[in-house]
Design brief:
With 466 residues, the protein is α/β, with parallel strands linked by helices. The chain folds into three domains: 122 residues, HUPs (Rossmann fold); 112 residues, Serine Threonine Protein Phosphatase 5, Tetratricopeptide repeat (Alpha Horseshoe), CATH 1.25.40.80; 177 residues, DNA Cyclobutane Dipyrimidine Photolyase, subunit A, domain 3, CATH 1.10.579.10. Helices cover 48% and strands 7% of the residues. It is built from 21 helices and six strands. Strands 1, 2, 3, 4, 5 and 6 form a six-stranded parallel sheet that branches. The protein binds a DNA duplex (15 and 15 nucleotides) through helix 6, helix 11, helix 14 and helix 21.
Length: 466
DNA sequence: TTTTGAGTTGTTCGA
DNA sequence: GTCGAACAACTCAAA
């Protein structure tokens, strides 16, 4: 042993658990395996500037809050979280060496960046074993395959049938290793303290309990953006791994139609992870090459108006403002706003994906890319390209009382429901009665939907003809 | 190998 | 107001 390392009794077996997006101790295969196979474990988190730079401040703050909660849980067990900043491919082997660890345990991630990073860490660890587990999904990426092709299903429904019929892989059971922090490490960066939620896995479990009281209403309420209890609000917890998808699915079960419908959505989450794991190119490219040939419009001002919630279509603006204000947007409205960017403005879906990537607290690349490609009609089992959402029809159907629009576009609040979804359709007198002047207090619609629709159909048809 | 059935979330048009 | 067809044919999965 070289000098400078802490002297460690040779019969003490040490493991490092390198946390990434699995910020929990229960139901965590990497943590369980390490605590079962070792005498003591070091809990490490590396603040890696590269993915952090992709994140907006809000997601960064949520991450830090969850890390603080993880640290608190570890302190209850007599240890603490070791935090280091920098390049994990250097830091992880350093920590393994400093602690004389014989194993490093991780839960794997599907992204290309994560896979290349982990491969390099494995190489640099030398004789220290990198033990990789899957903890973030119900079924591990790559484990569900089509019987006929041997690869991932290209259509969701057959994937889902196999997914539901496949027995769960067994996860390791946790042991009693001591939680050890060898050095003080760095302290966590500060947040602006505005996060008004209970962080960590206890918060996540509370949110699941709350959801269990409403999940039976899911099929009827999931599409109402004004309804705070219509969806689970668990997306960010799944993304940070403060709760496991497997635990959620097992607790919810399939005993009622609402429960079955909700668990089916977790299968969608697994499917997009399977797809991106098998085909990393989906992060940037359409499933079929010709769909990459759509001549997208270059329209920075229109993209900017969309981001700001100033398109003149109230439901679109409500959604974009909810995103800007909270880092979250209701699923139905994600579809409407995304469809508006791609199919009304004919702007490249990747630009919308990049905006959501920065803004969403629950951003996860597999889900973001999968869903944007679904809306754009470019991905596997996507919406057909000629299916173009009408933002006014969607608004009247899913926000009939205008509650969601009034919440996020308050300058329109005085309009009666009949006029709220398409204010340009009513006369200036009625607008004036509500204190509105189009083009001044609220924008004129950026595009005529009928015209935009024809433009998009033509652009996609031209791409397909190539 | 061939056949058959099926496919998240829609919109528009005309009878 | 309600209904069915067209959108556009295609690919995938499994028997």
């Amino acid at each position: 042993m070289t000098s400078g390392k802490p002297s460690v009794a040779p019969d003490v077996r040490t493991s490092v658990v390198w946390f990434r997006r699995d910020l929990r101790l229960s139901d965590n295969p990497a943590w369980a395996a390490a605590t079962a196979s070792s005498d003591r474990v070091v809990a490490l988190f590396v603040l890696d500037p590269r993915p952090l730079n992709d994140a907006g401040n809000r997601r960064r703050d949520v991450l830090i809050s969850h890390l603080a909660a993880l640290d608190a849980s570890l302190r209850e067990r007599g240890g603490a979280l070791l935090v280091r900043s920098g390049d994990p491919t250097k830091i992880v082997p350093e920590v393994a060496s400093e602690t004389a660890a014989s194993e490093v345990h991780v839960n794997a991630d599907v992204t290309l960046y994560a896979r290349q990073r982990d491969a390099l860490v494995k190489e640099r660890l030398g004789s220290v074993r990198l033990a990789s587990h899957w903890g973030g999904f119900f079924h591990a990426p790559g484990s569900i395959r089509s019987a006929s092709s041997g690869s991932v299903h290209k259509v969701f429904t057959p994937f889902w049938k196999v997914w539901a019929d496949t027995e769960l892989a067994e996860w390791p059971t946790a042991g009693n290793a001591e939680v050890w922090r060898p050095t003080e490490g760095e302290s966590l960066p500060s947040t602006d303290g505005s996060a008004e939620f209970v962080a960590g896995e206890s918060g996540a479990h509370d949110r699941l309990s709350e959801w269990l009281e409403h999940v039976d209403g899911y099929p009827d309420r999931r599409d109402s953006p004004a309804d705070e209890l219509g969806t689970s609000h668990l997306s960010a917890d799944l993304r940070f791994g403060t709760i496991s998808a497997r635990h959620v699915a097992e607790v919810v079960g399939t005993a009622t139609p609402g429960r079955g419908a909700f668990v089916r959505q977790l299968a969608w989450r697994d499917w997009y992870a399977h797809l991106l794991f098998e085909r990393p190119s989906l992060a940037r490219h359409a499933m079929k090459p010709e769909m990459d040939q759509v001549q997208w419009r270059v329209a920075p001002d229109e993209l900017s108006a969309w981001k700001l919630g100033q398109t003149g279509y109230p439901i679109v603006d409500a959604g974009m403002r909810q995103l800007a204000a909270t880092g979250w947007m209701h699923n139905r409205v994600r579809m409407i706003t995304a469809s508006f960017l791609v199919k009304d403005l004919l702007v490249d879906w990747r630009l919308g994906e990049a905006h959501f990537r920065r803004e969403l607290v629950d951003f996860e690349i597999t889900q973001n890319v999968g869903n944007w490609q679904w809306v754009a009609g470019t991905g596997p089992d996507a919406s057909p390209y000629f299916r173009i959402f009408n933002p006014v029809t969607q608004s009247r159907k899913f926000d009939p009382d205008g509650e969601y629009i009034r919440r996020w576009v308050p300058e329109l609040a005085a309009l009666p429901n009949k006029a709220l979804h398409a204010p340009w359709e009513v006369g200036p007198l009625e607008l004036a009665g509500a204190g509105i002047t189009l083009g001044e207090t609220y924008p004129e619609p950026m595009v005529d939907h009928g015209v935009a629709r024809q433009r998009t159909l033509a652009a996609y048809a031209a791409a397909k003809a190539q």
